[in-house]
Amino acid sequence: MNALFVCSRNQWRSPTAEEIYKQRDGINARSRGTNRSARRKVTLQDIQWAERIFVMESQHKQRLLANFRLAISPHGIHVLDIPDQYLFMDPELVAMIQSAVDPLLAN
């Protein structure tokens, strides 16, 4: 399964999620950002590649829908509600991501 994780700058949250899930069998993980200044900015190719899209905040969902409306279903985006207050691989961030994403992957 191809999982795309999205935050604003692709600096802390989505790269943490990518790091967690790229270690799991059966999951191909990528992380991207929605801002112009993102380390790796989300593209149409990323959207087309993804089978599941996980965004950290509802604003990320809105940006994806605005930019890729024809290529994406609003029901195909999962909002994790994880605020931008953690550093890369912060143990609390890892726990929040896993508790939000794992049940969605089980379905």
Write the layout of secondary structure elements.
Layout: E1 2-7, H1 13-21, E2 28-33, H2 44-49, E3 52-55, H3 58-68, E4 77-79, H4 91-106
Parallel strand pairs: 1-2, 1-3, 3-4
Helix pairs in contact: 1-4
Largest sheet: 4 strands, parallel
CATH class: Alpha Beta
The CATH architecture designation is 3-Layer(aba) Sandwich
Q: Give the tally of β-strands.
A: 4
Could you tell me the CATH topology label: Rossmann fold
Number of domains: 1
Structure in words:
The chain is an alpha/beta fold and 107 residues long. The protein has one domain: Rossmann fold, CATH 3.40.50.2300. 39% of the residues lie in helices and 18% in strands. The chain has four helices and four strands; from the N terminus they run βαβαβαβα. It has helices at 13-21, 44-49, 58-68, 91-106, and strands at 2-7, 28-33, 52-55, 77-79. β3 (52-55), α3 (58-68) and β4 form a beta-alpha-beta unit. α1 crosses α4 (91-106). The model has no long low-confidence stretch (mean pLDDT 95). This is Protein-tyrosine-phosphatase.
Comma- or semicolon-separated keywords:
107 residues; four-stranded parallel β-sheet; alpha/beta; 18% strand; 4 helices
